[in-house]
Structure formats: structure tokens, C-alpha cells
Amino acid sequence: MELTRRSFIKKTTAAGSAAIVAPTIIPSKVFGANDRINAAVLGVNGRGKNHITGLMNQKNVQVTILCDPDMNILKERQKSFKKTYNKDVALEQDLRRVMDNKDIDVVSIASPNHWHALSVIWACQAGKDVYVEKPGSHNIWEGRKMVEAAQKYDRIVQHGVQLRSSPAINEAIQLMREGYIGRVYMARGLVFRWRADIGDQGFSPVPEGIDYDLWTGPAPMRPFTKNLVHYNWHWHWDYGNGDVGNQGIHETDLCMWGLDVGFPTKITSMGGKFLWDDCKEVPEVLTSIYKYPDEDKIIQFEVRPWCTNTEEGTTVGNIFYGDKGILVVDGYDKYKTYLGKNRKPGKSGEDGGESGTGMDRGAGGTDGHFANFIDAVRKHDKTILNGPVETAHLSSGLAHLGNIAYRLERVLTFNPSSETFVNDPEADRMLTRNYRGEYVVPNKV
Asked: Domain segments of the chain: what residues?
């Protein structure tokens, strides 16, 4: 399993980083097994609640600060934290004060996508280790900067794709590496989610308690609307990346991991809005294809909303195609195989399930992924991370490439070594963005 993970990372460390050499930096703290690790969670409205639980479930880890631009949400979380753990927790609206706090050892980032990379970079510069929710980046350029920061400051950075800590999924990857379904030439990622009409609530005054300038951060400043704060920013290009850059990162990550590939050279994508006359900017339906001519492999990815059929019994997951059979991953922690043209059921596995290996569910999931992160922090050993920063750059970047092809409505040719498009200045401009004021992702981290 370790060789598989390292070979996957090798495909990105060579890309765009020939001059990068990780210096020898003494970590800000060296932790023993009984030393308490103090953590701060950035963004506590949605997924951040799981981050709080995941960290508090770890031995000798204490969440001591909750950070969010919305003081209303912070006060709610503070009350629930006290009720659940019978402990006090400090509140902070500005993440920069969290970075300046020498008592904080690790930060966990569950803020909107447009804040992820800059938060990671600031944390690395402050000598803190980081767990960052998917996607790691809002665009490809800042994903590379995130990798550079982790390397330069010798920090532990874990990407929140918890399926990488699933024993069953690791077993599935190993089966493919061993040739169980033959030569694996194609991966298909599926995101069929129930996404409703969000309407158009128009502009309104910023509610009391929200620091909207901080919420906006690196993105362009737009008039406030409830269609952004707090969840539906996912469906607007300035802040989110659509469902391929939301739920889909789990699947893009697994597609690349399973095929053992990095960035593709050919990308095409097509879709649109077919259901709702609402203010979403991103497509409701999206099909993207990523081709690897040199490796003779291909990735297909599809976002599909509302009423739909399943594929091989799954609506969110992956299907791998080999010349001897297929392997289906359903969700985050189970798989099944079918062999030959007669589709004979083969090996299967599920964390905590009764089929196949019946592995312990506690070893995977969010808690298991945080456990892997904390173990790497204590040992200051990034080689044992299940979802290191390089994989965040790749899996997020694949989603970004598909979105760029969709928005430009043409087939794109990409150079994985330079991480730029081939003779396409218009596409290259979409690899990054104009950053606002004091919230700039630095060119030199």
C-alpha cells in the first residue's frame, strides 16, 4: 500500500516543482504520546462540525478555538461544545489571530473552497500542521502554492478525503494493483446527488454578527445574498467549484489513485442547467472526460442531479474497468467485483460489514482519517499520511480542469509538467484568479 501511495505522489512532485527542495526545518513542537495537541477549527457551520468531533475523538487532542466569520454560528457551536464535552472553547472571527496564537499546534480547515489554499499557506508559514477539507484548492495555481508551502515549511498537511483511510478501499486498490480485474484502463466517477432549486433571494443587508469582508477573503467582493451564506456558495464560481469540486473530489481522487495517474493531457467537458431556473452558476449536469494517451488510460466523470438511476447499484462512487472485470466502489467504505463477460461476482469488502473482509469501520471514516493525521503530527512524518498535500493538488486540480473545459466549451490540451495549457492563453488565465486586497495567495510562499 505504501508503494502505491508514493508512486501516486511521485507523479505530481515532478510537475512544476523541479526547483523545490524541502529544507530541513525543526518542527515547532515535538510531541510525545502523552502530550496534548491543541487544535483550532476554521469554519464551523457545516463540515466543520464533523472536524470538531473528529479531533475531539482523538487521544490527547483538544479543540481550544473555533473560528468563523459568523459570530452567530460561533456562539451556537460554543454552546453545543460545552453541552457535549463539558468544556469551554474560545471563539475567534479572524483566522489570522488563530495563526498568531503560539498555543495552537494544528488547524483544521472547513471554510468555503475559496479560503482553503490561503488558510493552508498561512498555517504552514506559522509553523502549524493542517487538516484541510476537500477540495484543497479553488484553482490549480494555488494548489501548487499549497504544495510548495507544505514542503518549504516542512509541515504535515492532510487532505480530507477520508476514503483513503478506509481499509476496504485500500484493499480494493491493492487488488487492482495485483491484477485482479486485469489491466485497468478506465475509471468512472459518479456523483448523483439530490440537489434542489435554491431560488434567487436577491441582495440584502449583511446580517448582524457576520464579518462579510472576512467571509469573502480572497474572492471578489459581491453584494451580500443569502444564496451564498452559508452553504449555496458551492454553486457560484467565485467561491465554489460545483459538485465535481464538492462531493466529486472524493471520486476524482479515487479515480486517479486507482489508475495510478497524475494530471491528464486531454480534457473535454459538457453539461448545463436543465432543471431549475435558480441563481446557480455551475452546471446541474456535467460530464467530463480526461485522457492519458501516454498511459493509455481514461477517466470519465459525471455529475447528475435529482431523479436518476443507479449504476452498478451506486449513486456516489467509482467504477474501475479492467480487461478481466470491473470493480465498483460504493460510497466511502465498500467495494464489489464482477469478473468475465458473464459478470461472475468476485471479491468484495466493506468496513464493518458482513460481506468480504468485514473490516472495522472505526479504522476508516472521518475519525480514522483524523487519527492518521494526528499520528503523522506526533511523529512529524508526512510519509505516513493517507491523504498528503500532493494528492489534494491532483484531485482538486482534475476537477478544476473539467470546469475550465466546460466554461470554455472546447477540448483542452494540458502540459502536466508545467501545469499550463498548450498554446491557450485564455485557458491559462483560468488556472488562477485575481486576489483581493490583503487576501493574496503569494507567488513565493
From this structure: 2-161+367-388, 165-198+229-357+396-431
- Whether the CB-CB separation of 131 and 108 falls below 8 Å is answered with yes
Helix (H) or strand (E) holding 423: none
- Cβ contact 51:41 at 8 Å: yes
The Cα 81–Cα 79 span in angstroms is 5
Yes or no: say if 347 and 180 are a contact pair by the CB < 8 Å rule.
yes
- Residue 353 contacts by C-beta under 8 Å, 6 or more apart in sequence? 168, 334, 359, 361
Q: Are strands 90-92 and 61-67 parallel, antiparallel or unpaired?
A: parallel
- Domain 2-161+367-388 part of CATH 3.30.70.580: no
The pLDDT of 23-49, averaged and rounded, is 80
Angstrom distance (rounded) from CA 313 to CA 331: 11
Cβ-Cβ contacts under 8 Å for 174 (sequence gap 6 or more): 1, 4
For 187-203, the pLDDT digits (tens) are 999 999 999 999 999 99
Query: What is the number of other CB atoms lying within 10 angstroms of the CB of residue 179?
Result: 12
151's grid cell:
514542503
CB 303 within 8 A of CB 274: no
The radius of gyration of the chain's CA atoms, rounded to the nearest angstrom, is 21
Cβ atoms within 10 A of the Cβ of 161, count? 26
The 10s digit of each residue's pLDDT in 232-289 is 999 999 999 999 999 999 999 999 999 999 999 999 999 999 999 999 999 999 999 9
Residues 287-292: what's their mean pLDDT?
98
Contacts with 177 (C-beta within 8 Å, 6 or more apart), sequence order: 4, 260
Residue 100: CB atoms within 10 Å:
11
The one-letter code for the residue type at 165 is S
Asked whether 372 and 386 are in contact (CB, 8 A), the reply is: yes
The full DSSP string for 43-89 is: --SSTHHHHHHHHHTSTTEEEEEEE-SBHHHHHHHHHHHHHHHS---
Element (H, E) at 132: strand 129-132
The sign one gets for the Cα dihedral 41, 43, 44, 46 is negative
**CATH superfamily of this structure's domain 165-198+229-357+396-431:** Dihydrodipicolinate Reductase; domain 2 (3.30.360.10)
